[in-house]
Amino acid sequence: FVVILKLYLPNKNQNKMKIKLIILVSILPCLFSCQKHEVFKPPNVILIITDDQGYGDLGLHNNPNIKTPSIDAFAKQSVRFNNFHVSPVCAPTRSSIMTGRYSLRTGVRDTYNGGAIMASSEFTLAEMLKQVNYSTGIFGKWHLGTLPRDILDANRGGKKENDIHYAPPWDHGFDVSFVTESKVPTWDPMITPPNSAEDVKATLSEGAPFGTYYWKGAGQPVTKNISGDDSRVIMDRVIPFIEESVAQNQPFLSIIWFHAPHLPVLTGDQYKFVYADLSEDQQNYYGVISALDEQVGRLRNQLKSLGLAHNTLIFYTSDNGPETSKEVRGQNIPHGRAQGITKGLRGRKRSLLEGGIRVPGIVEWPAKIPSGTRVEVPCICLL
After folding, report:
1. Which residues are CB-neighbours of 142 under 8 A, at least 6 positions away?
2. Which pLDDT band holds residue 113 (cuts at 50, 70, 90)?
3. Phi, psi at residue 135, to the nearest 5°?
4. What is the pLDDT of residues 142-197, one digit of tens each?
5. DSSP of 6-40, one letter per residue?
6. Strands annotated E in the chain
7. Per mean pLDDT, which range of 10-19, 48-57, 73-82 is the poorest?
8. What percent of the chain has pLDDT over 70?
9. Angstrom distance (rounded) from CA 51 to CA 262
């Protein structure tokens, strides 16, 4: 059921041909295959990762409270992997999806102490697809290396001792970037929320800059349209990238790595209102996922309006299990703490138990995938 995407491309440094394997977990034919007499048109590829979303944090997985109508509709028309697994922490999962290799081979072991740095020698999916005329863009959380060299960012980037960790997406094959080095608040991402919110350093003052920037290139922080819902802020960059690719008559790779629902978890009143009968923590957490769901629906609607939906492959998963599972430790959850649901699976983020590594897995490609396909065998995000 797991198909390996194979491309035979010229090696940039050698005359001989090079075989590169990238895994797109699905029950579809090889991405660049076509039948006899069929005029081949390369598919667009969109890879979506949410951050710390639990297996039970979707309506389609029978969450009794959360409302995710857009993702639920997406899943009904897709291949749904009911036994899909990733790394127990985020950066290794990202490096595997980016390269098609085990995270230990990429050198991305964890999320701290230089363990989340993808080596410049890694050959990424973006670099591969650029060789066959794809436009490439990445949007959201990078977390595979530092982004600035001369501005302090996320307590890592900008420090001289961390310059060896500089590994931005624009050096890994991406034409367009709109990324942060690591986490940001899910509402007003550049502003420090109340210190009572989980994962906010006591040294930061409420309302002050959060200390992490969005970057579009080397030395190019973004200063406009970066307030409100963070998932919307990200999608506001994705859609123009897609429209520009269409205008240039290019297939595209769009990697969308949402921050939601990673801590600090906050959302706007319009999303909290839907969950008014629940606790404030639940209003924030479920509201953040509903806001994300809204942007997934916006993306799919735009693909339809541009006539791209039929031949666009969309992959959706989470980088690991939820930060906190009420089934595991439900008492005294402070304001702002995530309340992810594992649907009864033991463990959570950082755990090798199912709750830490089993996450949603959805792939849609109308041109190739029968609607409503279900896969129960265990699958992972790479070979």
Report:
1. 168, 169, 179, 180, 181, 182, 257
2. low
3. -85, 145
4. 999 999 998 999 878 888 888 888 999 999 999 999 999 999 999 999 999 987 66
5. EEEEE-TTSSSEEEEEEE--SSS--TT---TTPPP
6. 4-10, 17-23, 44-50, 79-81, 84-85, 135-141, 176-180, 252-257, 312-318, 358-359, 361-364, 373-375, 379-380
7. 10-19
8. 83
9. 5
> 124: which 2 tokens?
């990424």
The reported pLDDT for the residue numbered 39 is: 66
Q: How far is CA 116 from CA 146, 166, 194, in A?
A: 9, 11, 28
Nearest-angstrom CA–CA distance, 364 and 332: 40
What whole-number distance in Å separates Cα of residue 186 and Cα of residue 284?
A: 10
Residue 51 tokens, joined? 């951050």
Separation of alpha carbons 124 and 146, rounded Å: 17
How high is the pLDDT of residue 114?
Answer: 66
Note the residue count of the chain: 383
132 by Cβ neighbours in 10 Å (0-12 / 13-18 / 19+) ranks as exposed
Handedness of CA 102, 106, 110, 111 (dihedral sign): negative
Residue that the structure tokens 């995000």 belong to: 381
When pLDDT is cut at 50, 70 and 90, the band that residue 96 belongs to is very high
Q: SS3 helix, strand, coil % of the chain, rounded to 5?
A: 25, 20, 55
Copy the structure tokens of residue 366: 């109308």
Beta-bridge partners for 81:
375
- The one-letter code for the residue type at 222 is V
Phi, psi of 153 (to 5 degrees): -145, 125
Give the chain's mean pLDDT: 86
| Residue 1 DSSP symbol | -
Task: Please give the model's pTM, rounded to 2 decimal places.
Answer: 0.88
Instruction: State the pairing for strand pair 379-380/135-141.
Output: unpaired
The secondary element (H helix, E strand) that includes residue 191 is: none
Q: At what angle do helices 69-76 and 280-305 cross, to 10 degrees?
A: 50
